[in-house]
Amino acid sequence: MTATESDISNLSPQGNRYLEGNFRPVSDEITVTDLEVVGSIPAALAGRYVRTGPNPIEVPDPATHHWFVGDGMVHGVDLHDGAALWYRNRWVRSPEAAAHLGVPEVPRPAEGGMFSGSGNTNVVHHAGSIWAINELSLPYELSTELDTVRQWDFGGSLPAGTTAHPKFDPVTGEMHFMAYNFVEPYLWYHVVDVGGHLVRSESIDVAGPVMVHDMGLTRSQVVAFDLPVVFNLERAMAGIPLPYEWDDDYVPRVGLMPRAGTAADTVWIEVDPCYVFHSLNAYDEDDGTVVIDLVRHPSMFRSVKNGPDEGTPVLERWVIDPAGGKVSTEVLDDHAQEFPRADERLAALPHRYGYSTGASLNDFGGETDDHTFVLKHDVVAGTTEEFDVGAGRVAGEFVFVPADDATSGEDEGWLISYVYDRATDTSDLVILDAHDFGSDPVAVVKLPRRVPAGFHGNWIPDRAVR
Ligand SMILES: [Fe+2]
User: Fold this and answer.
1) How close is the Cα of 278 to the center of ligand 1, in Å?
2) Residues 6 or more apart whose Cβ sits within 8 Å of residue 420
């Protein structure tokens, strides 16, 4: 059964690659039940996989349109008792989206964030709720059926909102996140406790209005990136939707702030020019150094300003030595890759395995004939395995789901994501066995339509939501 909840087709791609191929937005919201499954969905999977991405309702100027900008749309598949019960896609009901769609606005705090937000970058769960989040804005709470419930500030002051890559401490149950701003203070660090209350805020002193997409968290330290993608007022005044660009004169640094200390205790260390969107995981070593595995881009928004197209992003290990004032770097895997993920039960703790998508970010739109791969990294053995998703098929971010939270070991579980197929112009939900990585997918859920190239998602188990 397919039902169209709304239809607002007014999108006309005019030469912007981020409006073409599978970057193109879809123009309606649908609900499809009783989905076809090839293979066997593990019965232990009880919940829903939800991913978000930009799906602009209107594009004011295709010439300046930036991939990262646009109304958020969440895409979810509900799995229970070995069946795929539904696929749903829904725009996040920001005030702008609600106005376009002609639906009521959701409740929002009077203050918080610099923008009303779009929820277009990540979907996470915390304190019993599902949150669609993006930068410079407050999160939107979603229902288990992907309806927008409200926007929320966790009961505190979030002047710059959040970033879309909070870290979840598996020991304390806290959510830690950064928030950056183009006015001072330029960088915030916040902690929300296990009950969903904002309990800590620090403004961290960086040299300028940098874009800070992610962070690192260890048992003892917070890792902050101060890298040369900087807000440009001229571009902002000219109406460029995302006025950040590379600055050759900006000194790149990484900072360590003791979790037990304050922002004033942050130790900053210079690094070679680069940009980091995503870290895989970070942890403390006994000698006082911090290890962080991350995907390093040679530069960002230097020549290509409307999307990430600046050379090969590779997996690196940085060992940050605050006492010695240096960062040593090592390439762990030189495939072009992005969207690194780990077993989040080991967040802030030493990990052995990581997973990423073998493609440069631009390939996620599916406009090339190149294969994309799912990559499995064993950082202890120093090996990387590839899983080929097939010719003309494009993998998104794969998220690791433990087979059993309490009893399964690292890497014992499944990898889940959407894979777009250019030939059929549809997408599948693909479930791989992480431990038996070379084998065929455990299950493929056939979706009757495509899921546009998006950003991040997570498995939201039933036990994680109220
Ligand atoms: Fe991201």
Assistant:
1) 6
2) 22, 366, 393, 394, 396, 426, 427, 450, 451, 453
The answer to whether the predicted template modeling score (pTM) of the entire model surpasses 0.85 is yes
Question: What is the Å distance from ligand 1's center to 59 Cα?
Answer: 22
Q: How far is the CA of 324 from the centre of ligand 1 (A)?
A: 30
If you measure from the C-alpha of residue 421 to the centroid of ligand 1, how many angstroms do you get, rounded to a whole number?
A: 23
CA distance 205 to 218: 20
Report the half-sphere exposure of 205 (CA within 13 A, side-chain side): 7
- Cα distances (angstroms) measured from residue 313 to each of 53, 274, 359, 386: 20, 10, 9, 16
Ligand 1 mean position to 213 CA, how many Å?
A: 6
Q: How far apart are CA 228 and CA 299, in angstroms?
A: 8
The 3-state DSSP class for residue 101 equals helix
Tell me how far the alpha carbon of residue 293 lies from the centroid of ligand 1, in angstroms. Answer: 15
Residues of the chain with pLDDT under 70: 1-15, 360-363, 365-370
d(CA 75, CA 420): 13
Structural domains of the chain ordered from first start: 2-464 (2.130.10.10)
The per-type count for the chain, helices as H runs and strands as E runs, is: 2, 34
